[in-house]
């Protein structure tokens, strides 16, 4: 090779040596990748799940405060749903660990406590885990929890289960969770008598809920019945939280699987459309009327999770576009350092914790599932 040839060969290497420090600096300071330039929703969720697990304790099976008892149940559901959509089993050992270690972490055994909505979240998490693992212990635990909730049904307000063991309130979320759980068990148990029992409960719950008045004239679900006087049994007009609009969608989808009644999907679609129209900002990003305390940051994710279930049962491009808009907004406008996500999906990022992270992951996983 001539001297000139050697120079021509070495020149690109010399240029790369000068450019390399600048390239490394840019890589270190790069902003989160934009939609279209790289990450898929699965990749976004993968980054987010890794961050979520920084708050997890293997010793307790729980997440660091302010993430509380019922929020941890939702985190288990997110891990399972992420595992399903990403075709991985990497985090199922985390779910198993929580099943073993958090069993009596709150107050008593079998994931029971003084609030029956908390119990409902855990029961649905174990149903979801049963679906992906096939392990009967999870389904049996869900049945145990069901029995405890069903015992809270009485004839105050002509039916419905109570929110707490002191019988202070009959509200939407507890009864929506009971509907979802009853129908889910009816669709999964093999014994005919047990299947009939759970289906009977699901139908009884839906008939009561629909007649209760908690679904208002705008097709949105208010928080519950008159809490100052539970015997008054009228819609209390309190907040239409996003999770109240979400859980009912999943319950109606499960009940429709059991009985195939088009009116159930029609009802779910009416609530979903009303929620998208009435609870979003002008850019189509889901918002809570107020975000405070440990609980409300969880709510929006529950809506997206159940909207995805409705989309699977009754595909509607509006639902897909809505999920896309929210997932993209979380990634672009509500992301802090190290893939932490906040409570304001429209932005700006406020703070990070396990509850905020779980809710945002619900939205990313929902978008990934709506193919």
From TrEMBL:
Ribosomal protein recorded as keyword: no
Protein's UniProt name: Glycoside hydrolase family 76 protein
Pfam families per UniProt: Glyco_hydro_76
SUPFAM superfamilies given in the database record: Six-hairpin glycosidases
Signal sequence residues: 1-27
InterPro entries named among the record's database cross-references: 6-hairpin_glycosidase_sf, Glyco_hydro_76, MUG_Protein
Coiled-coil zones: none
Database matches in PANTHER family: ENDO MANNANASE, GH76 FAMILY (EUROFUNG), MEIOTICALLY UP-REGULATED GENE 191 PROTEIN
């Amino acid at each position: 090779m001539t001297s000139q040839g050697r120079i021509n060969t070495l020149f690109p290497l010399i240029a790369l040596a000068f450019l390399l420090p600048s390239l490394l600096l840019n890589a270190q300071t790069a902003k989160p990748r934009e939609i279209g330039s790289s990450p898929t929703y699965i990749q976004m969720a993968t980054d987010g799940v890794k961050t979520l697990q920084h708050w997890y304790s293997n010793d307790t099976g729980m997440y660091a405060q302010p993430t509380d008892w019922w929020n941890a149940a939702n985190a288990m559901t997110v891990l399972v749903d992420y595992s399903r959509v990403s075709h991985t089993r990497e985090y199922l050992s985390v779910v198993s660990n929580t099943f073993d270690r958090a069993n009596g972490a709150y107050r008593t055994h079998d994931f029971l406590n003084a609030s029956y909505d908390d119990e409902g979240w855990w029961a649905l998490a174990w149903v979801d885990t049963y679906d992906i693992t096939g392990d009967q212990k999870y389904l049996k635990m869900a049945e145990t929890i069901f029995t405890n909730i069903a015992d809270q049904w009485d004839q105050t307000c002509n039916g419905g289960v109570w929110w707490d063991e002191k019988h202070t309130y009959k509200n939407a979320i507890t009864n929506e969770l009971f509907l979802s759980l009853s129908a889910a068990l009816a669709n999964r148990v093999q014994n005919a008598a047990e299947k009939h029992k759970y289906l009977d409960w699901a139908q009884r719950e839906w008939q009561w809920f629909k007649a209760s008045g908690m679904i208002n004239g705008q097709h949105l679900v208010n928080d519950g019945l008159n809490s100052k006087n539970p015997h008054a049994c009228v819609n209390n007009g309190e907040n239409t939280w996003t999770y109240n609009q979400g859980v009912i969608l999943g319950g109606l989808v499960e009940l429709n699987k059991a009985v195939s009644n088009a009116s159930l999907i029609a009802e779910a679609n009416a609530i979903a459309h009303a929620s998208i129209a009435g609870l979003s900002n002008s850019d189509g990003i889901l918002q809570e009327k107020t975000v405070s305390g440990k609980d409300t940051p969880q709510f929006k994710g529950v809506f997206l999770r159940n909207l995805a279930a409705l989309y699977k049962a009754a595909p509607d491009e509006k639902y897909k576009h809505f999920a896309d808009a929210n997932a993209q907004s979380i990634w672009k406008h509500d992301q802090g350092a190290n893939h932490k996500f906040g409570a304001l999906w429209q932005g700006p990022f406020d703070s990070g914790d396990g509850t905020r992270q779980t809710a945002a992951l619900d939205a990313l996983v929902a978008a990934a599932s709506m193919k």
